[in-house]
Amino acid sequence: MPPSQKSAVQRRSEELDNIAAVLPLERRDELAELLTDQDVETLRHLVNQGMGDNTLRALTSDLAYLEAWGLAATGKSLPWPAPEALLLKFVAQHLWDPEKRAVDLDHGMPPDVADNLRRQGFLKSTGPHAPATVRRRLANWSTLTKWRGLEGAFASPALKSAIRLAVRAVPRTRKRKSAKAVTGDVLAKLLATCSTDSLRDVRDRAILMVAFASGGRRRSEVAALRVEQLTVEPPVEAPEGPPLPSLAIHLGRTKNTTGEQDDVVYLTGRPVEALKAWLAAVKIDKGSVFRGIGRWGTVSRRAIDPQSVNAIIKQRVELAGLERGEFSAHGLRSGYLTEAANRGISLPEAMEQSRHRSVQQASSYYNSATRRTGRAARLFS
To answer: Which residues are CB-neighbours of 181 under 8 A, at least 6 positions away?
Structure first.
């Protein structure tokens, strides 16, 4: 690598380290080589604009993929703005018909492009991309173009038609993020694997109970939870026994809110006790709530990352004797609404806790719990 190019890579790596103080980034060294100076400047600008961490992660991930694809497909970095022909090429190489590919190797993504992306870890699937993934990457491509003060061809009739025809030609069954919902009975099995007083069991018990009981919080929200977001609420009267402890979680800005909103959800009873037990065990009174635990039981000062939350769920699934591939962290979110339906809780009340903004999205989980066993499904049973 020429000295001038090496110094440019080092400079971008330092800039990415500065960005990472606000936005945790993986593979920074690889990104420093892949992204251009203008790419890094755009990311820094977006960080300074106060954009949400999840949105920034998605933009960074998609920008890296687009740059890697552009280099593999054309031999050059992405042009800004991208011409319509390049956008159409992107659609053609990501939404294609596997049956046609079997008889025509020129259909879809060229093998050398796919192999290049696969070697770099950007491509895992051997088939066409999901339409939602292609649409999201095009949308983020458009967003990044606008943030550079440029106009692209993302609204062109030709591009819209290409996507519509490609999706229609190859219908796909929409898959849930978690094949199965973590309902109350499944959660009980996972909690049973956290039965000791070891720090891992105490922490994982709190993660499971807090994530589920607070409305099925996203793994990013669980990982980012801080003590400063928690406020003690008056105890809740119980039908039998002593009053139940209560906490409020101030979510602040989430996927569905703006910076000015402060969504609040509540924990009552056992989840509060589990959370307090974890905080007391490791003497946490400020900063990140859920932290990494080292091999020898050393608790990190840094928060766990969202991927670790998913890994913890899958590990507990395995320990419970369930199929690892059937559950993920998102199963807690769908499981909360499914369990609410099973217990006769109204959809509006359940959504107050889950903080879903879309009734259609929430009801897709909620209604499936009752439709399967309802009278309409058993009409000819």
So the answer is: 331, 334, 335, 338, 339, 365
